[in-house]
Amino acid sequence: MDNKHLWFLNDLNPKQKEICISDKNLILTACPGSGKTRTLTYRLAFLSTIYSASNKLNIAITYTNRASEEIKSRLLSLDIDLRNVWGGTIHQFCLEFIIRPYSMYSKRLSRGYRIIDEFVQNRYVNEISKKLQIRLGFNENPFAYPAVVEEYNKRLEESKEIDFNMILQLSHDLLSQNDFICKNIASLLRTVHVDEYQDTNELQYQILGSIFRENNTIRYFFIGDTNQAIYGGIGGIAKNKKELDSLFGTDFEVDRLDGCYRSTQRVINFYSKFQIDSSIISSESELRDMTGVITYDRLTNKNNISNKIAAIIQEQLESGVPENEICVVAPRWWLLYPISKTLRELLPDVSFDAPDVTPIKYDPMNVFYLISQIKFSESGRYSSLRKRIAGEIISILLNDYKLALPDYVDCYFVLKCINSAKICDENGIETFTNTVETLMSLCKIDMEQEIYLKRAYIDFLNKVNERIDNYDLSIDMESFNKCFREKKGVVINSYHGVKGEEYTTVIAFGLLNGYIPYWNLVYGDYNKRVIETSKLLYVVCSRAKKNLYLISEQGRTTQKGEPLTPTEELVAGCEDFALN
Ligand SMILES: Nc1ncnc2c1ncn2[C@@H]1O[C@H](COP(=O)(O)OP(=O)(O)OP(=O)(O)O)[C@@H](O)[C@H]1O
Question: Looking at the domain assignment, is residue 242 inside a domain?
């Protein structure tokens, strides 16, 4: 391969480059900002370039859709052909490579299935608990009751439904009972990269291991940071070399990246106080020696929090920080929604990339969500994305619902049907129902006969109507278009949602016992509490390049009216640090 095609490798430091072109099975650990994502992206670019004539796939499994979209857009900006690159979450991998192509080998899936979302799951669980006369307490997990689990599973099986978690279990079952499936999938792959591997759960490791054992020429890369393992509560584990060697039946190399290209040394020194496996991190950033701002505010009252944050944003913008380099974070979405609204009112000239309460909730595995995404997003733009979504709609109708579609139905046909459906400016729901009816009729699908598809449609409409009622939303087209509009500006997101991202200025509020750590840890094992809380603080604070504004606001209370107090681990971390 001519070196000029690999020009992008010059953007890496020698260690990153060595890892990028390595042909070993590797566990790569590194501190925040050390270039894990950059190295992973460039490795995909490298593999795609040197094996451009091969169909074998280079897989990147990411924790979130946002992360995989980020990697794909970085690859596109490097002008890399994405044909032999696949990126997505482990659930998407299982659906695309295991469940859809091999559902006929599963008793549970062979007659068709639909994936239910949280809305339907909650409805079922509430109905079942009521029927079984179980009164659920605040925050109580209904699945802790075996009778609920039994009834719930029975109900899903009867109605040919599966939930999100079952995707993994059913994939695992398909692989463990059918060696040929593992072999077939293994023959398609060249490399598998698992980003944020510290958040991988046991079942996910087993799925990946069983594919690898059928073809040990696949190269596996596990990339992560154990200090950022914030999903331990839902089963995330960073397996060590010995465990991975034994599961994959191979010899993994362990390597690490050092140096942080993101933050000032001062920010690093601050967040290092929350490190679990202590190691010294040096700044390699151009900002290295800058002082920036690190403050901790325990005096602002919750009623004044929007004014306080608006003033910080204003000051940052005036000092030249661009909008998209400022981020406001909180531990819970319900804390963020009201702030987004008031910040927009207080700063009408500023754009926000903020959570909006919209009629349609993100649910990319639902065929009706995908139909609405095409109908309500701008039609002239992102033609390759729209084509991909149309392909996904066909795949769900064929594979999940087991429908027979006429031969002429392809991506272009689906797009044409959806685009041609009548728009009703004052009524997004009517526009949506027109669209579904047009598409189904032109694809010769009789919804009255397809009861499972019909049920999914009704559930989708019910959810939209419920959101409109609960949040008092408008039903005009603008309200629906807003669901899919690309957002730009000051980012407003949750602590977990900003993992992997970076901003010049991070403003974090809601740093209170009960929110971080959450109640289950406040009353649980003390050591566990300290570890989990420190990891979350580490993740949040390490997003900042230069400025960090931390706020434990006053005036918030428990449901019983007890005042919430500042997060203890943060108070201790700030004690001997020279704050501004
Ligand atoms: N060799 C390098 N030279 C210059 N900048 C770099 C280099 N490597 C990484 N960076 C920059 O450092 C920043 C952090 O990189 P990246 O996001 O890949 O880190 P990370 O290890 O994935 O961080 P985190 O663990 O927090 O997600 C990015 O802005 C990236 O472009």
Answer: yes
